[in-house]
Amino acid sequence: MLILNFSHPLTPSQLAAISELTGSDGLQERRIPTQLDQQADFLPQSVSLADACQLTPQQWQTTPLIVNPPALNFVAVVLLAELHGRMGYFPTCLRLRPDAGSGGVRQAA
């Protein structure tokens, strides 16, 4: 299973939690740097983000994927629309939440 990470790097404990939730022992995290120009159109920038994943059209449609979307909600929406166009369906997305008792500093999967 491939994690396309458009956000902060995932910690070992987050990766372990994702592995447990998905039942997948072979997780791979592909980090995609996501620094966008907020004054420019998000669509071409989102296309570039998807291109940066370096997946073939066949891989987009056959590889089990999980997406850790960008933190900026407007970019996340446009990127998910782009990924839907490539995959033919909306991908599974991670939702990270504050780890209990951490004061919001650490994130759990």
Set down the secondary structure blueprint.
Elements: E1 2-5, H1 12-22, E2 28-31, H2 42-51, H3 57-62, E3 65-68, H4 73-87, E4 92-93, E5 97-98, E6 107-108
Parallel strand pairs: 1-2, 1-3, 3-4
Antiparallel strand pairs: 5-6
Helix pairs in contact: 2-4
Question: Can you put this structure into words, describing what you see?
Answer:
The protein is α/β, with parallel strands linked by helices and 109 residues long. The chain has helices at 12-22, 42-51, 57-62, 73-87, and strands spanning 2-5, 28-31, 65-68, 92-93, 97-98, 107-108. The longest helix has 15 residues, at 73-87. The protein is globular and about 40 Å long.
Question: Into which percent range does the helicity of residues fall?
Answer: 25-40%
Number of helices, where a helix is a run of at least 4 consecutive DSSP H or I residues: 4
Q: In order across it, which strands form the biggest sheet?
A: 2-1-3-4
Write down the domain tally: 1
Question: Which ranges are low-confidence, i.e. pLDDT below 50, for 5 or more consecutive residues?
Answer: none
